[in-house]
Amino acid sequence: MKVTEHIKKANGKTLFSFEIIPPKKGKNIQELYNNIDPLMEFNPPFIDVTTSREEFVYIEKEGLFDRKITRMRPGTLGICAAIKHKYNVDTVPHVLCGGFTKEETEYLLVDCHYLGINNVMALRGDAMKGEQYFKATKGGHAYATQLVNQIKDLNSGKYLHGVLDVDDKADFCIGVAGYPEKHLEAPSMKSDLKRLKEKVDAGADYVVTQMFFDNNKYFEFVEAAKKAGINVPIIPGIKPIAVNRHLQLLPQVFKIDLPETLIHEVEKCKDNKQVRQVGVEWCIQQSKELLDAGVPVLHYYSMGKSDNIKAIASALF
Ligand code: FAD
């Protein structure tokens, strides 16, 4: 079932969902199941699985640089299929522009369709390590809007090399990313919202937000998006702080603000066990307010660990 159909079926009731990251290359999938199992009692109608792009690693060999391509966390589609069948839950593979040609994306989408996966999250991806700006892969897309266009084309039977008279057309429900504190490269919130509107006009069915720690940022964003003519569900994506290092890391990587009160509470902690507790409590309060506001889904970034998400969900669902 599509994410938007789940939202419609819930009839105003807030749903619980989460995002997982594939295990590192060579690791066992059991570790992932061990983290998903405790969350299934909260009946997530869908689970997102992230994708990492390939990274180029340069290794010096006899005075020359040899390029090695690594993808630390492959397996997004395989994991989506495995989870879908093991838990009878819908899965949402993240599909990236960066690192993939349009042909590779088409193959991936065709595979999704064969596997009965009809939700995808269309994303551009970040700049590669050591590069300041995102560079489009040769033969790939430069912006998520172009990827949305490709997926919509496929929905209407239009493949890269011609229209196919297929009797079993794909019918993907498309999610895209939104940024309550604006995307780090966007010159202004206004221009970022304009770009988001372009993704929705191209055919995106719903938006999932970047993490935020102050709900006002989300409420203001939803308001501004509505004013800009964006009328699809905007799902808040939230994450509990788990370690002290997040105080520096999250604002630096995602260009988001942390509320002073939260910083103060974390700084008072003697160890990361206490930080975790503060993070969980903050996230519960955030979630309660979002629930009261009637958000369609509370979507948690689990980062592969379920214990804190379980503690949060237990207090709410
Ligand atoms: P876009 O929508 O393409 O926007 C990128 C930037 O370009 C923005 O600043 C936008 O304002 C601007 N822009 C858009 N269109 C144009 C245009 N036509 N001309 C000029 N500027 C334009 N990353 C991963 O690698 N793997 C994941 O699994 C993953 N999952 C994510 C899930 C969520 C919910 C979110 C919020 C992010 C996720 N990301 C993931 C991170 C994401 O890839 C980055 O934030 C990336 O930098 C931007 O992706 P986007 O799809 O928002 O890009």
TrEMBL record:
Its cofactor is FAD. Keywords: Amino-acid biosynthesis, FAD, Flavoprotein, Methionine biosynthesis, NAD, Oxidoreductase. NCBIfam families: fadh2. It holds the Pfam family MTHFR. The keyword Kinase does not apply. GO terms for molecular function: methylenetetrahydrofolate reductase [NAD(P)H] activity. It comes from the Bacteria. Pathway: Amino-acid biosynthesis; L-methionine biosynthesis via de novo pathway; One-carbon metabolism; tetrahydrofolate interconversion. The gene is metF. Its EC number is 1.5.1.54. This is Methylenetetrahydrofolate reductase. Transmembrane segments: none annotated. The lineage of its organism: Bacteria, Pseudomonadati, Bacteroidota, Flavobacteriia, Flavobacteriales. CDD domains: MTHFR. Belongs to the methylenetetrahydrofolate reductase family. It is an enzyme of class 1 (oxidoreductase). It comes from Gelatiniphilus marinus. It catalyses: (6S)-5-methyl-5,6,7,8-tetrahydrofolate + NAD(+) = (6R)-5,10-methylene-5,6,7,8-tetrahydrofolate + NADH + H(+).
